[in-house]
């Protein structure tokens, strides 16, 4: 090892050590916000950080402040986050210490990091998958010369050994091994979870666990020895850069500080003396002396680090705090699609079913944009989706752009974070809304919060397609409506179209939107085979047709008439067809205004409130059970905004409040709304 590398490593370790000691000494000033430090882990973190390049992507975890220092960040940068200051370069004071997000040209790229231990592993693997895709498609990452700048990039995911017990880690390892992705999993094993130790929680360590994934090589090293760590990582990184395959490094380290400032080590630790005997600091100090540095050289480096840390801390204490108005920035990146454009109903075109409008939209996008790709369960060439919503796409664009994944909803959803971070636009599917639940952790923790908690640096540009709703004896695992859960996740946009033209226009708008979008696609409308849903078919819009989010459609508009009872129906998806059919069968098209929301977020409140103020009565129609639902919340909002204009309570109709939709067709029809049920509710409300 070069002497300058050893010196730099020692300097970074002294800095990290001094920071941890300063935080302890000034506990009352910094304990307002919970933090953890790298004390004991510094050697392996610095050994890695000094070898990464600006083209690489890193996913540190909450104990990796020494790694961040080795990337070139200053103690002051980290302290701004420690103290939740306005100029915190990662999040603007929004998230915890050592939860970085970085997009500097001269440093490794760090997408948003969450606090959910191990959850970063899927987004990190998504970055590696994106790197691989770009290389296969000729979109970059190709070596041009022998210069450092032209080396192929790698992804690094850092995590603690306790988190490797998470099920989502297995999904990431499985995909990395299966697809042979260029990623390094660095596992720092200090033998502890919080107060639970390894013997209580793990059947094996990460090195032993990795042996179960064919194609994922692993080594185990002493992570408290800087020289050993640096040289081992040097070989591994070279292997990944050249052979483009995954690797796991299991590094044994001591934990020399608290789990976090809020969970003190003396409360539960019985191994502190043994841990202190493995401190990486005296090891690297001896290596420095053995390399020819004098005791005075060592002392000078230590003193310089302490002085820098003290000076930066004093500056950080004086830094400005966020202002109240700073709360309301960077939840979304502005979208370029703000108005309806293109031809919705081209002359001479024939009507097509809703599923074909979606299929043609994706095909047009993939033809135009090589960054666009589609993956999920059974969307590949053999089947093209269980609803044929991806039919022929794999044949047209190849297996690298349209491919099957394992049954891994968490990976499908969370990998989009990484794919987006490297400049791709993934369109992904979960097969049924009923199976979205394993993916909600990633959707909530990683996808939806990335833009806000990175202060706008890392919006996740993705489309998640979710077939939803009952469609004729689908039974309890293929019929659910889940929009109330999805609408409670802030930071995503949600479409729920009722017809093919809207689906195509919204799909195009979603693609050009830099934010995450969930499109709920009703299975009963895909083919218009459910009676009364012919209105879901559409003349296919032109290729340039886009429909902006947040613009409801007054599908049936009326004029307010004196002495005539009128009503607004607010609905979406299948509810639009129940509402229109009920209105027609009652012969009340001139009394009932029907609003198709099209998107559940953003919600077009102006159109809703204007209509209700005009008609004086309102019915919200949903397919979900109505208790505690999105529809019930919307009813309450309408009641609040329009109270003095109302002639009756705002009413809601939805499915019966039962745990699941039964398979038997009689029970199913008893549970879900229908045209007849909506008619009865209309009459009740008009006669109120």
Automatic annotation (TrEMBL):
GO biological process, one term: branched-chain amino acid catabolic process
Keyword Ribonucleoprotein in annotation: no
Organism domain of life: Bacteria
Cofactor(s) listed: thiamine diphosphate
InterPro entries hit by this protein: DH_E1, THDP-binding, Transketo_C/PFOR_II, Transketolase-like_Pyr-bd, Transketolase_C
Keywords, alphabetical: Oxidoreductase, Pyruvate, Thiamine pyrophosphate
Annotated spans, Disordered: 97-117
EC code: 1.2.4.4
Gene Ontology molecular function: branched-chain 2-oxo acid dehydrogenase activity
Pfam families to which the protein is assigned, alphabetical: E1_dh, Transket_pyr, Transketolase_C
Domain Transketolase-like pyrimidine-binding per the UniProt entry, residue ranges: 352-528
Function text: E1 component of the 2-oxoglutarate dehydrogenase (OGDH) complex which catalyzes the decarboxylation of 2-oxoglutarate, the first step in the conversion of 2-oxoglutarate to succinyl-CoA and CO(2).
Protein name: 3-methyl-2-oxobutanoate dehydrogenase (2-methylpropanoyl-transferring)
